[in-house]
Amino acid sequence: MSSEIKYRIEGSYYEACNCDAICPCRRQNDVPGGLSSYGNCDFILSWAINKGQSGDTDLSGLAVCMAGSYHDDVEGSPWSVFIYIDERADDSQMQALSDIFQGKAQGNILFTSNISKVLGVNKARIELDHSEGTETIKIGDIAEVHVDSVVDFDGTVSCGIPGHEHPGRESVSSLSLSDAPFQWAYQERCGFSTVFAYWS
Q: To the nearest 10°, the Cα dihedral for 1, 122, 43, 58?
């Protein structure tokens, strides 16, 4: 997809990683965050696109997930990731979402600059529930994420992936992934949910 093609997608967002809640990379009351709790970050991110368009291609109602890992001691903490796109996407929707979430379509989806290696862009059966306080992610039979409890915090928490202009809710969450080379499961770590809007 050419960078000249305009897109806009918006909807709800939920993620979890192996850090302790509140994730140290988050901004708390607008104070910038720092490094991971354990020196590395294993994560699963999810976007439910409530409304979306890329050129003439309607992206409304589709879902995207990303799973990956990075290490704090590697310069720049580059991400290695899989991108999973809703199995219901047709060829044009698949191409548009692949380009957007790899950063090829540019725009304000700034976190994609952290990605150094894309291990695969795969269609998958994605089931998301972004209901407040009971968020879940299921990617086929390879990944599951769920909220264990909501963190009570007096102030604002935000994350750069959906954008700091969208503060949200921190949670204690559990997550697991089995998709080589990733193989991990964590109980009662951190999660975050909010809304997002990306456009070019």
A: 50
Report the DSSP beta bridge partners of residue 58: 53
In terms of residues, how long is the chain?
A: 200
The number of angstroms, rounded, from the C-alpha of 146 to the middle of its chain's C-alpha atoms is 14
The DSSP bridge partners found for residue 85 are 64, 123
pLDDT tens for each residue of 38-69: 999 999 999 999 999 999 999 999 999 999 99
User: What is the pTM assigned to this prediction?
Assistant: 0.96
- Cα torsion angle, 147, 59, 111, 120, sign: positive
Show Cβ contacts of residue 22 under 8 Å, excluding neighbours closer than 6 positions: 28, 151, 153, 157, 170, 190
Rounded to whole angstroms, how far apart are CA atoms 181 and 63?
23
Contacts (Cβ under 8 Å, ≥6 apart) of 180: none
- Of 140, 195, 135, 188, nearest to 162 (Cα)? 195
